[in-house]
Amino acid sequence: MNTEEGSVFALLLLFLLQGSIGLDILSQNNTIQDGNLLVSSGKKFALGFFSPISSSHRYVGIWYYQVSEQTVVWVANRERPINGTSGALSIDSDGNLVLHETNGSFLVWSTNVAYALSNYSTTAQLMDSGNLVLVQDFSERVIWQSFDYPTDTMLPFMKLGLNRKTGLNRFLTSWKSPEDPTPGNISYRIDPTGYPQLLLYKDGDPYWRAGSWTGDRWSGIPEMTRAYIFNLSFVNDPDEVSIMYRVIDASIITRMIVNESGSLRRSTWHDRDRRWIEFWFDPKDQCDYYGKCGPNSNCNPYNTGQFECTCLPGLEPKSPGDWYLKDGSAGCVRRGRVSVCRSGEGFVRVARAKVPDTSKARANMSLNLKECEEECLRDCSCTAYASASESLGGSGCLIWHGDLVDTKTFADSGQDLYVWVDAIELARHRKTRSLSQKAMVAIILVSILTALLLAGFFLYGLAIKKRKDRRSHNPQVSDMTNSTYFNEPQSVEDRSDEPRGNRDVPLFDLSTVASATNNFSVLNKLGRGGFGSVYKGVMDNGMEIAVKKLSKHSGQGVKEFKNEVRLIAKLQHWNLVRILGCCVEEDEKMLIYEYLPNKSLDTFLFDKTKRLLPDWRKRFEIASGVARGLLYLHQDSRLRIIHRDLKASNILLDTAMNPKISDFGMARVCGGDQIRGNTNRVVGTYGYMSPKYAMEGIFSIKSDIYSFGVLLLEVISGKRNGAYYHESPSSLVGHAWELWKEGNCEDVIDESMGDSCTKEEAFVGEIFLKCIQIGLLCVQEFADDRPDMSTVVFMLANKDVVLASPKRPAYVFKSKHHGANLSANDKPASGNDVTISMLEGR
Ligand SMILES: *[C@@H]1O[C@H](CO)[C@@H](O)[C@H](O)[C@H]1NC(C)=O
Ligand SMILES: *[C@@H]1O[C@H](CO)[C@@H](O)[C@H](O)[C@H]1NC(C)=O
Ligand SMILES: *[C@@H]1O[C@H](CO)[C@@H](O)[C@H](O)[C@H]1NC(C)=O
Ligand SMILES: *[C@@H]1O[C@H](CO)[C@@H](O)[C@H](O)[C@H]1NC(C)=O
Ligand SMILES: *[C@@H]1O[C@H](CO)[C@@H](O)[C@H](O)[C@H]1NC(C)=O
Ligand SMILES: *[C@@H]1O[C@H](CO)[C@@H](O)[C@H](O)[C@H]1NC(C)=O
Ligand SMILES: *[C@@H]1O[C@H](CO)[C@@H](O)[C@H](O)[C@H]1NC(C)=O
Ligand SMILES: *[C@@H]1O[C@H](CO)[C@@H](O)[C@H](O)[C@H]1NC(C)=O
């Protein structure tokens, strides 16, 4: 740099430092022309003119400065586009921010703040939060800010809701289309009537209800309790009712948008992949749509194969004909005549509920649940009650009168709703409850007998089959000992001539699979996940199979698919679910697995009625079995498979309760890169995912180790990592860590195991403390600190090994106001067998 240039540069610098123009500031007498930018001081956001994709119109907007894909978060002139590049943004003489077209001759948009008039001079500044603020120079008061007029994007630190004093109501409205930022039909706002709720509206009608605030989350978004990324806060006082979220790690770029088709979506920017990765959206299932089942009924999306609507206790379908035809929109009404008040009536509990619409509910925060019940009983028109701040330990009281609208059942969260019933109905419910306990015993006996019978039939069938095969060369394709193979898919008839060495994975034909599963009947459906649905099937010889029908659009070519299945099928281990074969025909791709009659581990572990089933010894064996299976996947097999979605519902149990890992290698079978490449979603289940993977989509062997650690803690504690429980607001991982630090980690151990181990108590206690320590070692914050699977197996197997002291795990936030909004399309274990809980591919 020569001296002349140097002095010019210095002058320029001086000018920038002293003059009124900062990069992030627009002051009076300056304008931003089309082509100029205002950039926030930390270079996070930029303001300027832009055109949406496939549109020539110009708009003034704010977008991320460092995100390579232009992502607009706010638009000034949503409804008045500018035709050419003649627009100019400035501050006019009365202090308002104005947008003119054609050399200042035509006013397009203005902040229109009346009191800006009183003292002229104002300055606009673009903040690093993405907020554009207009400040009165004299008083330094913010007289206008873009955060008060959001468009379709909610950013961290932005408030949504109503200022009761000024009447300002901040809410999101979708664009009309990706080309047109004009306000569309969808909005997302707080309804302050009754007990405030957050709702998504379509054409002005409720469309999906995030529900009411329960202390640390919304009643309709139970996933939020997990403390990951966000710190959510809700204010409801005489001044305002509003929500806001903060990001705990400021380097995370995240946003929430309402999409023009009525979907609320949350995503984070993954710089490494240069794309937005969606990690949460709502509405998800049919029960999310407002009032799907009409008034006074409950919608349960996990009623696999059945009608999702059921009447709330004591009520019956208003229109039984429609109900029969699976149209629940008419809802339910009270049976018979309304019975008299104060004559032995009571309440029936509906568990895991999303409480009904609270716009007509009454709240009294000073009552506890017991007083709430009394209040409801006293009031003869009360139809239901529930705790108002359930997630903070159940204080507060919500009381409903009249219809109960939009109730839903969650898989493993939600709260208790107490529905008013008359004396007769109450007696009926008490009776069925005690009956059902007796029935449980009977059911267990019957199922054991059935299992024995089935096993007998199966063996018999196999024997017959073997005999037949010796005689005939042309049987139906059925199991892996004799069928067609990939190498010669055409030669179904003469496969017996093939050399033995080529026979690796059997190819089933579509007609066989279809007839085994009753043509993929809903009655045979075991569950559904991101890669497709799973069906139970019975082959002609009586053998039971599980068929995973992959979604048509997910995945790759037939040849690659077969290659991958062939590789995956070679993974054979006692603790892996066995692949029997596959079926590729008429653009259908299916995987055939052995069928395991017991459900997945989560149903035993988390279901209160069955919790006693695995005793401590079994639990330890299950944990060790899973560890060995995972070790095989990671190290001992030739392929080195990262599971990516290890969790209790992916561990199936055979009749002897041996654990078998399912769903391994799905990323390969469905085209590993395509999962991330085409769908913009992370595969896996929040709660089990390591933060690195959740946030950045970077997976490694150590991400699986993290999931294993979570699973181990769940097995020991009998509690779900994600589920909320009252003793502590943090997740199971956080809870275990806190107890560990205090030296009280016996408290993690499932209390239901108390009596199963009286004699060997000391010994068992020791084993479990060791398991907790190993679990905590696996969930440590830094992947490098986590042990690998061979070390885990070694530690589990050797009594005397000295363990390291775990460091702080990921995801521990001590605040009471934590709350996160992470959820995958986390389908519950609804079926008997292979449950897939991965994110939907598109
Ligand atoms: C803006 O320009 C007007 C006249 O054009 C002048 O009177 C005023 O002082 C200027 N304001 C600033 C802040 O420079
Ligand atoms: C842009 O052009 C259209 C016609 O092409 C016209 O109707 C509209 O008024 C123009 N917009 C503005 C802001 O001048
Ligand atoms: C706008 O101003 C430019 C120069 O500043 C001039 O060339 C152009 O003709 C003007 N356009 C109109 C419509 O006045
Ligand atoms: C406007 O600002 C001046 C100082 O610049 C102050 O003396 C005056 O009181 C202010 N007027 C109002 C209405 O705020
Ligand atoms: C918005 O509503 C109007 C009228 O109700 C309808 O014609 C239009 O298709 C809707 N637009 C979208 C994007 O749903
Ligand atoms: C969450 O927000 C509250 C204020 O609402 C704050 O006191 C707390 O420190 C925050 N927690 C974290 C982990 O940032
Ligand atoms: C809006 O959400 C739906 C899913 O609900 C999705 O299919 C669609 O692609 C989304 N549209 C945009 C523009 O993101
Ligand atoms: C709440 O309940 C208490 C005790 O019954 C009562 O004194 C109070 O008035 C109630 N508050 C409201 C707002 O109804």
Automatic annotation (TrEMBL):
The keyword Nucleotide-binding applies. Residues 471-502 are annotated as: Disordered. It comes from the Eukaryota. Its main location: membrane. GO terms for molecular function: ATP binding; carbohydrate binding; protein serine/threonine kinase activity. Residues 1-22 form the signal peptide. SUPFAM superfamilies: alpha-D-mannose-specific plant lectins, Protein kinase-like (PK-like). Residues 474-490 have a biased composition (Polar residues). The chain crosses the membrane at residues 439-463. Residues 341-422 form the Apple domain. Belongs to the protein kinase superfamily. Ser/Thr protein kinase family. This is Receptor-like serine/threonine-protein kinase.
